[in-house]
UniProtKB/TrEMBL annotation:
It holds the Pfam family Cupin_1. Residues 1-24 form the signal peptide. The keyword DNA damage does not apply. This is Cupin domain-containing protein. PANTHER family: OXALATE-BINDING PROTEIN, SLL1358 PROTEIN. The lineage of its organism: Bacteria, Pseudomonadati, Pseudomonadota, Betaproteobacteria, Burkholderiales.
């Protein structure tokens, strides 16, 4: 169903440039401009297509495909774009967070995202969620702590590029390390979940009768008289001590958890490396504990293409880390919409909708694909056509035999994700 060894997910940049030139050459011809009435600025006068009214030029210029979409865009669909850059920050002594959930991004039903920073010694207080938490470090270093349902502890330091995953209900905390602290992106496996409504230890104890606390811990009730009356959420703590000492103090007689809660992405060889870029796939096959979130970390070279494809098992949530790109999403109707992405932006593609991503900048484009699933899967357009009887493809596309020969060569690929 999916192939990551040969041409598959990353198309050749030079071929894309040739196709772009061909489209521009035909201009008002039907190819590349297919709908009636014809759409796109290519069919309009400069005066008719002007925008003399009020505008936010800074925002407009970041999203040129909204203002001047390609003539192949058609119809309407839920906008598959949001951005942490436009999300409101909650700032406290020790760090900050901002989130993109269904409140501001209704299409994102399966996954909600949070961007958080903890300064040196900054602590995200002891808490837990009703949802699973998947995360990637984007800058600096953070210490994570958690226990599993058998009381087995995990204390680990994670740095840029590393991942962690906490299953629903497992308690945990985070603390910024070193001179700079750390920044990371969290993903919850429910689009309505948020960072500002978690279950926190300070609030629970504050809302428990003192006699119950005394009976629960076997400690006189007045020992708890200084419990904070408001949630800590993020606070400035003392610098974290040596990792080995923290691990020794937290160690359980039951040993370590069966599976690590962290994944060192930097130590992983790419699942696929091609001239157009590379992809790393992280799911339960190499990160067993991550049972509800599968990921692909994609790097596209300038001009590279994440080829035309769709995902049959789950919606796709995207986070753009570096570079500039554009994506076109295709739906029944027909409907097609092109959107632009910059660092800090978020994309979303519903299950089974066709799409591709193009690097439109001069540097590498790096982005995440996340799925509410235990495995990564996709269907590519090229492989589908390559494995369909020749006459059917010829009748559908009305192409010559030489073109069919090229398409057919794509069929003999080994599926490394099977």
């Amino acid at each position: 169903m999916t192939d990551l060894k040969r041409r598959s997910v990353l198309a050749n940049a030079a071929a894309g440039a040739v196709a772009l030139g061909a489209t521009a050459a035909v201009k008002a011809a039907e190819f590349g401009n297919p709908d009636r009435p014809l759409q796109g600025a290519i069919n309009s006068s400069a005066v008719a297509n002007a925008e003399p009214g009020p505008k936010n030029a800074l925002l407009r210029d970041q999203l040129p495909s909204f203002t001047n979409p390609p003539p192949t865009d058609v119809g309407g669909m839920a906008i598959p774009w949001a951005s942490f850059n436009l999300a409101h920050k909650r700032i406290q002594n020790g760090g900050w967070a901002r989130e993109v959930t269904t409140k501001a991004f209704p299409i994102s039903k399966d996954i909600a995202g949070v961007n958080m920073r903890l300064g040196p010694g900054g602590v995200r207080e002891l808490h837990w969620h009703q949802q699973a938490e998947w995360a990637i470090m984007v800058s600096g270093e953070v210490r994570i702590t958690t226990i599993d349902s058998l009381g087995r502890a995990e204390v680990a330091d994670v740095k840029t590029g590393d991942l962690w995953y906490f299953p629903p209900g497992l308690p945990h905390s985070l603390q910024g390390l070193g001179a700079d602290g750390g920044e990371f992106v969290l993903a919850f496996d429910n689009g309505a979940a948020g960072e500002f409504n978690t279950l926190m230890v300070s609030e629970w104890l504050a809302h428990t009768p003192p006699d119950i606390l005394a009976q629960n811990f076997g400690i006189p009730a007045d020992k708890f008289k200084n419990i904070p009356l408001e949630q800590l959420w993020i606070y400035q703590g003392a610098p974290a001590g040596p990792l080995a000492a923290a691990q020794a103090y937290s160690a359980s007689s039951a040993g370590r958890p069966d599976h690590p809660f962290i994944f060192r992405t930097g130590a992983m060889a790419p699942t696929l490396r091609q001239p157009g870029g590379e992809v790393k796939i992280i799911d339960t096959r190499n990160f067993p504990i991550s049972k509800t979130v599968a990921a692909a970390l994609v790097t596209l070279r300038p001009g590279g293409l994440r080829e035309m494809h769709w995902h049959p098992d789950a919606d796709e949530w995207q986070y753009f880390i570096q570079g500039k790109g554009s994506m076109t999403v295709f739906n029944a109707g027909p409907a097609a919409q092109t959107v632009d992405f910059n660092p800090g932006d978020v994309g979303y593609v519903e299950k089974n909708l066709g799409h591709y991503v193009k690097n439109t900048g001069s540097t590498d484009l790096v982005f995440l694909e996340l799925f509410k699933s235990d495995h990564f899967s996709e269907v590519t357009l090229s492989q589908w056509l390559a494995n369909t009887p020749r006459q059917l493809v010829k009748e559908h596309l009305q192409v010559d035999d030489a073109t069919l020969d090229v398409i057919h060569k794509l069929k003999d690929r080994r599926d490394v994700l099977a």
